[in-house]
Specification:
The protein has 580 residues and is an alpha+beta fold. The chain is 22% helix and 26% strand. The chain has a four-stranded antiparallel sheet, with no helix packed on it. Strands 27-32-29 form a three-stranded antiparallel sheet, with no helix packed on it. A two-stranded antiparallel ribbon has the order 1-2. It is flat, with a radius of gyration of 51 Å.
Length: 580
């Protein structure tokens, strides 16, 4: 044993670890019980892993301490001190340093194991030669022989009995050494390397037998040219029950559904050549679903599949078809089908035979029947589902060449009366008053004379036309409103604006066009054209870099009676009014 005075830090850590383990054990006493056998096996396996991890860390620490660099007292270090270094390499001081580093601070199991088995490590250290770096020997000495928590490879159980099929196999590494493998190298041994397990083999794919030295059914043994040869079990051809090789000519016996041919091949048997092979099943299917069955050959077997719905017949002769298509029908055809001259059945096109649908529908032929489907919303009669297939257009739509029926913009004709504004809809239009006007008894009531116009606009109008109009307040009727232009994906959009009914006898003069609540610094030009006594066309053009606008744009407009501008020689609609 090492002098205990040398190891106070490690002893203290080990003592603390033992206390923590005891606390953990006591705290876990209330845990759910498990089977005693599985609990024991788990502990044994865990201790074996702990021991192997410890020896691996021991080797790492040994390499780390292989070259020592002294500080402080090493200033006078010379080759005369090599004898001291040699004593360190084999001595207790180095062992202490190695053992200080084999367990991490939080690894309680490692500290517990080290405390229980430290003397065995010290024994091995004392007996080893200076050049002995075989730390598998430490694993064998500590884990297998002394602590007895592991077995050497290929052994299992409390007594480390040899696994079944234990054999030496050439290593896959370049050193060419042989390694001991259980189950003839073709499986795994239950409990291999630990003091538990049954020692039974679990074979790799294709292998069988207690020692994994045979091939499973439907497999054959294949050997390489290596010395010794490497055995593998490969799958037989699908047609073989047993075989000597991979081809269908290597079969020792054929599977059910296959038979030997003259050239020794296992070939598929076509069960469908046998008469009435599906007769019984077909009779049952006819009774249940009025649909016969036919025989479909498959590799190594056959299936009874349903005939096409075009096929018909009677229960006395249930073989209604020879395949899955309508052309394979053998006897009569179902409703919606007719017999072909070349055999089988084909669909009847009821639409070509004068089938009538209700108004607003078109005839659509389907397999074995017919259906009537709704025309497009723009059609007054049609031959298909799209607008281009309209026979005539509904009111509110018009023919637009190959494109079919398109919506008609009724607002271009100013259809609204009583001062209402026109809004086009799909196939129709809507008339409504626009703020600030209100509908009273079906008529839009809004400011209609100059004294009702706000002062800023009134002043601007009077300044602009005072020379030509004289006393505008006494002689003219004026009107203003707001047009809802909406959104646009393009840089230019037009909107028809209607005046109240009988407001003007002659086309009025546009006094002002101005955007209302324009957002975000957007820039527009507003202009009016096609001015009549009923209304005008408002045109909005975007002048900045954008191609459209996403907000719902509104434009304030003002007009006055053209008769008041008696000295103005130009027609009201000859020069469109434009304002930024």
């Amino acid at each position: 044993m090492l002098n205990s005075k040398i190891l106070p830090p490690r002893r203290l850590l080990l003592g603390l670890a033992i206390v923590l383990v005891l606390i953990s054990f006591c705290g876990g006493a209330k845990k759910k019980k498990t089977k005693a056998g599985s609990m024991f096996d788990g502990k044994i396996s865990s201790k074996c892993s702990t021991c192997k991890d410890l020896t691996k860390k021991f080797y790492e620490m040994h390499k780390k301490t292989d070259t020592i660099h002294f500080t402080g007292e090493s200033k006078g270090w010379t080759k005369d001190n090599e004898k001291f270094l040699g004593r360190y390499k084999m001595g207790e001081a180095r062992l202490v340093e190695i053992l200080e580093g084999v367990c991490s601070k939080s690894d309680e199991k490692c500290f517990e194991f080290l405390n229980d088995n430290e003397e065995f490590i010290e024994e091995w250290w004392a007996k080893r030669d200076e050049e002995d770096h075989d730390f598998q020997a430490l694993e064998q000495h500590l884990c297998v022989e002394e602590a007895k928590v592991c077995c050497k490879e290929g052994h299992f159980g409390k007594s480390c009995s040899p696994c079944l099929g234990l054999t030496s196999i050439k290593s896959s590494t370049d050193d060419g050494n042989e390694v001991v493998k259980p189950c003839n190298g073709h499986g795994s041994c239950n409990g291999d390397g630990i003091r538990t397990g049954s020692g039974k083999c679990s074979c790799d794919t294709g292998f069988a037998g207690k020692k994994c030295d045979k091939c499973k059914k439907h497999h054959f043994m294949k050997q390489t040219a290596d010395d010794p040869p490497i055995m593998s079990c490969e799958k037989c051809h699908d047609s073989c029950y047993e075989c000597l090789g991979p081809a269908n000519t290597d079969c020792k016996a054929c599977k059910t559904g296959f038979e030997k041919s003259d050239n020794n091949e296992c070939k598929d048997i076509n069960e469908c050549t046998k008469e009435d092979v599906c007769k019984e099943q077909s009779s049952a299917a006819i009774a249940e679903s009025k649909q016969g069955l036919f025989c479909q050959n498959t590799e190594g077997s056959f299936a009874c599949e349903s005939c096409h719905k075009a096929c018909s017949g009677d229960a006395e002769n249930p073989t209604w078809c020879k395949g899955s298509e309508a052309i394979h029908c053998l006897f009569s055809c179902s409703e919606g089908y007719m017999s072909k001259e070349t055999g089988g059945c084909e669909d009847i096109n009821e639409c070509e035979n004068g089938h009538k649908c209700d108004a607003g529908q078109y005839c659509n032929n389907i397999d074995g029947g017919v259906e009537c489907s709704a025309c497009h919303a723009s059609c007054e009669g049609c031959t298909g589902p799209s607008a281009s297939q309209c026979s005539e257009c509904k009111t509110g739509f018009h023919k637009d060449g190959p494109g079919g029926c398109k919506d008609k913009d009724e607002c271009k004709d100013f259809p609204c009366e009583n001062g209402k504004d026109c809004k086009n809809t799909e196939g129709s239009f809507e008339c409504a008053c626009v703020e600030p006007s209100k509908e009273v008894d079906g008529v839009c009531q809004r400011p209609a004379i100059l004294r009702d116009i706000p002062e800023p606009l009134k002043e601007e109008i009077m300044n602009e036309r005072e020379a030509q109009m004289g006393n505008l307040e006494d002689k003219s009727r004026a009107h203003h409103g707001v047009a809802d232009v909406g959104k646009s994906e393009n840089a230019v959009k037009s909107r028809n604006v209607s005046f109240p009914q009988d407001l003007f006898v002659d086309p009025p003069v546009i006094a002002k066009l101005k955007g209302k609540d324009v957002c975000c610094g957007d820039e527009f030009v507003y202009s009016a054209t096609a001015i009549t006594e009923k209304g005008f066309t408002l045109i909005v053009s975007r002048t900045d870099s954008q191609s459209g606008w996403g907000q719902s744009l509104k434009v304030e407009w003002s007009v006055y009676d053209a008769a008041a501008a008696m000295n103005d020689p130009s027609p009201a609609d000859s020069q469109p009014h434009t304002e930024l």
